[in-house]
């Protein structure tokens, strides 16, 4: 007699669990491309910091808040005196008559003053609408109240992102995605997003033959971005069009481009004083360093 063979149907066996799929979605460069934000590494005399940067239309952003500059007590005193003078009103009969006439105008007893024709302002509106520079893309960093938030490690940056603490990038429509998905392994800036401001002054002091063109050009780019985003007037003015540092930047770019433009760019660089350039950049880097809020 054959022994009974128990056949277990496939339906009776426990179903094999399917491999878990990651719910984190995109990561690394793909994540940053989707949210249009990028991790940035900036080396300053005080250390190397990690932060975030985004570019958006100016009309889409609310600029960072900056603390009001302390008022000069002497200017305040003068302003108070002017205010007192404005408050002091000497009323005579002629002035009183003018006041009464003004009240009569409000009551409709006299003819209303002619109002400007709205058509007179149409040309001005058209000029504003046609100005493309009025709504160009501008930079914004991970900052708060005029301070750049810089982190020593990817872990500390991610911890801050998830904390819900206030900062300027929170206004972006893609910020919720960043806070939900970002991992410490995603904080790996691309080569073009790494800046070594701590080497700029020393490199300029070395003389024209030792100037590192890519280093200095990249420094100009990030310094302009930081000046605009953090509303640093001294930095903006120092790098403004026509300034000595702007002339230096244009010559560096020409020299880097090669060809005849590079030849003339190198000739122009020879005429720029190394000491003047290093002192100018030292001031710019000092202003930027003063508004960095280092986070561990």
Task: Indicate the topology.
Elements: H1 28-35, E1 37-44, E2 47-57, H2 73-87, H3 93-106, H4 122-130, E3 137-141, E4 143-144, E5 147-151, H5 154-163, H6 175-181, E6 194-196, H7 200-205, H8 213-229, H9 233-238, H10 244-257, H11 259-270, H12 274-289, E7 292-295
Helix pairs in contact: 8-10, 10-11
Short description:
Helix content is 45%, strand content 13%.
Could you list some keywords that capture this structure?
4-stranded mixed β-sheet; 12 helices; 7 strands; 3-stranded mixed β-sheet; 296 residues; single chain; alpha/beta
Order of helices and strands: HEEHHHEEEHHEHHHHHHE
Determine the structural class based on helices, strands and strand pairing. alpha/beta
Largest sheet entry: 4 strands, mixed
Mean pLDDT: 79
The counted number of beta strands is 7
Low-confidence stretches: 7-24, 70-78, 81-91, 109-113
Number of helices: 12
**Shape verdict:** globular
> What is the terminal separation in angstroms?
79 Å
What does this structure look like?
By secondary structure, the protein is of the alpha/beta class. The chain has a domain at 30-62 and 137-295. It contains twelve helices and seven strands. The chain has helices at 28-35, 73-87, 93-106, 122-130, 154-163, 175-181, 200-205, 213-229, 233-238, 244-257, 259-270, 274-289; strands at residues 37-44, 47-57, 137-141, 143-144, 147-151, 194-196, 292-295. The strands form two sheets. Strands 3-2-1-6 form a four-stranded mixed sheet. A three-stranded mixed sheet has the order 4-5-7. Strand 1 and strand 2 form a beta hairpin. Helix 8 packs across helix 10. The longest helix has 17 residues, at 213-229. The radius of gyration is 31 Å and the shape is globular. Mean pLDDT is 79; it is low at 7-24, 70-78, 81-91 and 109-113.
């Amino acid at each position: 007699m054959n022994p009974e063979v128990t056949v277990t149907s496939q339906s009776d066996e426990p179903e094999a669990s399917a491999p878990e799929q990651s719910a984190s979605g995109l990561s690394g460069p793909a994540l940053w491309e989707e949210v249009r934000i990028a991790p940035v590494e900036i080396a300053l005399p005080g250390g190397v910091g990690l932060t975030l940067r985004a570019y958006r239309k100016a009309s889409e952003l609310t600029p960072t808040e900056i603390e009001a500059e302390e008022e000069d007590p002497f200017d305040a005193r003068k302003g108070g005196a002017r205010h007192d003078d404005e408050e002091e009103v000497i009323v005579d009969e002629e002035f009183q008559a003018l006041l009464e006439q003004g009240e009569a105008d409000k009551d409709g007893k006299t003819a209303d003053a002619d109002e400007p024709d709205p058509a007179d302002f149409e040309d001005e509106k058209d000029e504003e609408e046609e100005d493309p520079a009025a709504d160009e893309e501008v930079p914004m960093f991970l900052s708060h109240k005029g301070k750049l938030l810089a982190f020593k490690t990817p872990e500390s940056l991610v911890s801050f992102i998830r904390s819900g603490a206030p900062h300027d990038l929170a206004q972006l429509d893609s910020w919720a995605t960043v806070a939900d998905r970002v991992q410490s392994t995603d904080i790996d800036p691309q080569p073009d997003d790494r800046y070594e401001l701590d080497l700029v002054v020393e490199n300029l002091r070395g003389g024209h033959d030792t100037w590192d063109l890519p280093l200095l050009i990249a420094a100009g780019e990030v310094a302009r971005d930081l000046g605009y985003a953090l509303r640093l007037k001294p930095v903006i003015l120092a790098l403004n069009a026509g300034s000595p540092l702007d002339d230096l930047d244009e010559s560096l770019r020409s020299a880097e481009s090669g060809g005849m433009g590079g030849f003339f760019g190198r000739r122009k660089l020879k005429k720029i004083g190394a000491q003047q350039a290093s002192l100018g950049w030292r001031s710019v880097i000092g202003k930027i360093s003063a508004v960095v809020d280092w986070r561990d």
